[in-house]
């Protein structure tokens, strides 16, 4: 009898371990101190429930779109990627993440750790008001409010390469990446699933310009035809409506209006009367719509949309001998380049002869897209 009970106990423990191991693994991969969010904000991967039609439409946008070259890398435009950044899973094991993507995820996790230790004074008021707006008026209204609140922090150039936590950002100000991280964490704390949040790294459209990279937040909201872009104000946004002369001359920190909101003297909706910086806008109508997209990421992982520029020339078929020179990338895909302008622009070439011989060839498209699509 004791032996039978022992065997039963072993079987029960084995079954429990099999059930709990995946959940434990997810929690372990989260930043230290953030495991209390695991059950509420785990990114289950929108790609799991994405419709084949939506995935096909997104890949077709990439296949027919323009890819900008800089420093021998080509990248699609933000508007061409669109909702595909949410349909494809992050941290795909089939794809090796770039060193830039790995570094961005690590810096975001470091900012999250710092945020869990220390929040700005009044942060809970912002979170509560964004959450209340979401309950009352829906996702889009809450996103608009969060975007306008964070844009009330003054822009200050010359920061280091780390991602500031909101506490440091509110005290010292920052650049585009710090605005994007603060918005990400504000929406996260207000209850938005991180599966709906993507930080996006936009690349320059020309060579050797390291300081022209830009980071924004893109949010997928309910009942919207496309995601919303949350951009940051630039250096030129010097004076806020509620600033006095002395406050307007300040180089860092929240505006007078945001300071009053943080202190509880003014309701958060006050920022919507005269918002600072660009408003949250659908991807296709954003001021960044045509910028090349390098990487999308959140605390769970990243996905790179950049690839090496095609190098080897391909011999043209008889049907294309009068056309532009064709190049082949490492996946065997044919490309054409328009080098007539300041910025080289690449497009996937469609050879009629190849299309007839291999009608399914176009579906291979791009490793960053189809390698992550789940059947």
TrEMBL record:
Organism the protein comes from: Paraburkholderia sabiae
Keywords from the UniProt entry: Signal
Signal peptide: 1-25
Database matches in Gene3D superfamilies: 3.10.620.30
Ranges of residues in domain Transglutaminase-like: 136-221
Pfam families: Transglut_core
This protein's record includes keyword Signal: yes
Protein name: Transglutaminase domain-containing protein
InterPro entries associated with the record: Transglutaminase-like
Source superkingdom: Bacteria
């Amino acid at each position: 009898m004791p032996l039978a009970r022992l065997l039963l106990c072993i079987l029960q423990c084995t079954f429990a371990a099999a059930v709990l191991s995946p959940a434990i693994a997810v929690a372990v991969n989260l930043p230290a101190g953030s495991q209390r969010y695991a059950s509420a904000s785990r990114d289950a991967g929108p790609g799991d429930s994405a419709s084949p039609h939506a995935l096909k439409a997104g890949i077709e946008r990439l296949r027919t779109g323009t890819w900008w070259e800089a420093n021998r890398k080509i990248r699609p435009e933000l508007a061409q990627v669109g909702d595909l950044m949410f349909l494809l899973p992050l941290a795909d094991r089939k794809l090796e993440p770039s060193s830039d993507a790995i570094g961005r995820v690590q810096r975001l996790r470091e900012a999250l750790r710092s945020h869990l230790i220390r929040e700005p004074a009044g942060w809970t008021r912002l979170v509560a008001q964004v959450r209340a707006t979401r309950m009352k008026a829906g996702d889009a209204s809450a996103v608009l409010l969060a975007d306008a609140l964070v844009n009330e922090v003054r822009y200050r150039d010359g920061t280091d390469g780390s991602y500031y936590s909101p506490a440091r950002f509110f005290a010292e100000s920052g650049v585009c990446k710090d605005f994007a991280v603060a918005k990400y964490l504000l929406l996260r704390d207000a209850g938005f699933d991180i599966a709906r949040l993507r930080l996006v790294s936009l690349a320059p459209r020309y060579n050797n310009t390291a300081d022209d990279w830009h980071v924004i937040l893109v949010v997928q909201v309910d009942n919207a035809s496309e995601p919303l872009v949350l951009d940051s104000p630039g250096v030129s946004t010097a004076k806020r409506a509620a600033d006095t002369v002395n406050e307007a001359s300040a180089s860092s920190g929240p505006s007078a209006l945001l300071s009053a909101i943080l202190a509880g003297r003014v309701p958060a909706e006050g920022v919507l009367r005269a918002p600072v910086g660009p408003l949250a806008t659908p991807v296709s109508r954003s001021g960044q719509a045509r910028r090349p997209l390098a990487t999308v990421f959140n605390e769970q992982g990243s996905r790179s949309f950049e690839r090496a520029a095609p190098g080897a020339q391909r011999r043209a078929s008889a049907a294309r001998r009068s056309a532009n020179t064709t190049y082949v990338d490492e996946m065997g895909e044919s490309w054409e380049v328009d080098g007539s302008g300041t910025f080289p622009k690449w497009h996937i070439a469609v050879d009629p002869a190849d299309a007839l011989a291999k009608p399914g060839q176009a579906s291979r498209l791009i490793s960053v897209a189809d390698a992550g699509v789940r059947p």
